[in-house]
Amino acid sequence: MSKIKKLIDGINAGIQSTKELGDETDTITMTLPEMEYTAKAIREKQERQNPQPLTLDKLIRMDGEPIWTVTIGLKGSGHWELCEGYTIRACPFKGALRCVDLSGEATLYDYKTYGKTWIAYRTKPEGSGEWIKKRYAL
């Protein structure tokens, strides 16, 4: 377990125990909102530095959230899109993710090809161009 993961787990445990107590005790030096903000910031930094593709289960639940999509094997294909959710209507295959990019163009992504032809992240990986080249030997 990484040091950052241990720190996040410790902060989350502190948040949970504080919520269960119903108030802060004198052993807590941060307020609950400060602890939550800190845990979120650490988690987001860890995700940028150690990018992990979203699982299909998490991806399906990203309705209304921005995602960073990459077409595997296509240099410079990474871009932000707004995930509009899972659909089985109006698509040529069963099960698709509908996303809209910044220009307003909609794309249907087939779940069956996830991880083979395209991947998605919650955050844009730092140095994403180099990292993706190494990961997929482009």
Structure explained in plain terms:
This protein has 138 residues and is α+β, with helices and mostly antiparallel strands. It folds into two domains: 3-49; 56-135, Roll (SH3 type barrels). Helix content is 36%, strand content 22%. It has four helices and five strands. The chain has helices at 3-21, 32-49, 56-60, 128-135, and strands spanning 66-71, 79-87, 96-101, 106-110, 118-121. Helix 1 (3-21) packs antiparallel against helix 2. The longest helix has 19 residues, at 3-21. The model has no long low-confidence stretch (mean pLDDT 75).
Low-confidence sequence ranges: none
The radius of gyration is 19 Å
Percent of residues in β-strands: 15-25%
Q: Count the strands?
A: 5
Query: Can you identify the CATH class of the largest domain?
Result: Mainly Beta
Order of helices and strands: HHHEEEEEH
The proportion of residues forming helix, as a percent range, comes to 25-40%
Write a concise keyword list for the protein shown above:
5 strands, 2 domains, 36% helix, SH3 type barrels, alpha+beta, five-stranded antiparallel β-sheet, 22% strand, 138 residues
Helix and strand topology:
Elements: H1 3-21, H2 32-49, H3 56-60, E1 66-71, E2 79-87, E3 96-101, E4 106-110, E5 118-121, H4 128-135
Antiparallel strand pairs: 1-2, 1-5, 2-3, 3-4
